[in-house]
Design goal:
Blueprint (H helix, E strand, L loop, with lengths): L1 E7 L2 E6 L10 E9 L5 H5 L4 H6 L10 E8 L11 E5 L8 E4 L12 E4 L11 H14 L6 E5 L3 H10 L6 E5 L3 H10 L3 E3 L6 H9 L5 E4 L4 H10 L6 E4 L19 E3 L10 H14 L4 H4 L2 E3 L4 H9 L8 E3 L2
Helix pairs in contact: 3-4, 3-8
């Protein structure tokens, strides 16, 4: 079978490797789609700290947003059958034609898989369960109260998905900032009420003018120091809440003096930081079915496995019109 390997900074190779041979307790899945995640970019760019680079030498496998079809099951498997369409967290290295997993977890498996069957009517490229369960967790942690001011920085795929889950008529304002006007236009379409472009306005001053006291909930979806600095500056004291969504994994310098006002801080992205992960994947699939997450607007690009390098470059380059890409082997 074919699988993608990062063999050097910004360089993929598609290699022929042995097909997984499943045990009696495992399931074999043909990967139909796997989302391109910004958290994979550090692996691709080799922007980790030196310590992490030693733990993760080249070549590296990437991919953790799979959806696919069950093609073989071990004799002890009862919850899945051949032909089931499944999504969730199978492991790492899902930019490949096939992946195997043990539903109960086990040695070498890493974190225990969380797998759900894809409801009818949802195409594979929209059933990327891992980021969607993260979005469900984020919405439940943000949980603004009636009359709150919500501020958010960042309008990529995760940022726009956060708006879908958090925006509500009960909010006074949902203020969103991003550097791209076309993304801000989509943010308004999805529920933001005020949009700010830092290239034209002083975002912190504008938020203070709008709220009078600062945002009740400040959501960071950037993954760079400026995101954390900004939410700290705009969040109110006392009952203010910061929700950190951005994936901060490259060494950098952070200025967090404005956080001294002691906000409540949540970092709900990923099952390791969720308080209720097992319920959030089925909740997310339900929300996709209901149209709460308009996946046709959020998943904008599809690639073949052989085009994975272009997929990653499009993600890095903020290609006009690009929100989310999926690789379909």
């Amino acid at each position: 079978m074919k699988a993608a390997f990062v063999v050097a900074p910004r360089k993929f190779e598609i290699r022929d490797i042995e097909m997984p041979k499943i045990t009696d307790d495992e399931v074999l899945v043909k990967i139909e789609a796997c989302g391109v995640c910004t958290s994979d970019m550090a692996t691709y760019l080799d922007s980790f700290s030196e310590e992490v680079k030693k733990r993760r030498p080249f070549p590296r496998r990437v991919g953790h947003e799979p959806a696919g079809t069950v093609v073989e099951v071990g004799k002890n498997i009862r919850d899945f059958k051949v032909g089931d369409r499944v999504t969730g967290i199978f492991g790492m290295g899902d930019f490949a034609e096939y992946v195997s997993f043990n539903p109960a977890g086990g040695p070498g498996q890493g974190r225990q898989p969380m797998v759900e069957k894809i409801p009818d009517g949802i195409p594979f490229e929209h059933a990327i369960g891992e980021p969607m369960m993260d979005l469900m967790s984020i919405a439940r942690c943000a949980n603004p109260e009636m009359g709150d001011y919500v501020f958010q920085i960042g309008c990529g795929f995760m940022g726009l998905g956060v708006i879908c889950g958090v925006a509500s008529p009960k909010l006074k304002e949902y203020v969103v900032c991003d550097l791209e006007d076309w993304r801000l236009d989509l943010a308004r379409e999805l529920g933001a009420t005020i949009t700010l472009n830092p290239k034209r306005v002083d975002v912190v001053a504008e938020v203070m003018k709008i709220t009078g006291r600062g945002a009740d909930v400040a959501i960071e979806v950037v993954g760079h120091p400026i995101g954390l600095k900004t939410v700290g500056e705009v969040v109110r004291g006392n009952r203010g809440k910061i929700v950190v969504v951005g994936w901060h994994q490259a060494p950098d310098t952070y200025e967090l003096q404005s956080w001294i006002k002691s906000p409540i801080i949540y970092s709900p992205q990923g099952i390791g930081m969720s308080t209720d992960p097992k319920s959030e994947l089925p909740r997310a699939l339900w929300a996709i079915q209901k149209g709460i997450y308009p996946m046709k607007k959020l998943v904008t690009h599809k690639y073949k496995l052989e085009e994975i390098g272009k997929a990653f470059e499009d993600n890095l380059g903020r290609t006009p019109g690009y929100i989310k890409g999926v690789v379909m082997p």
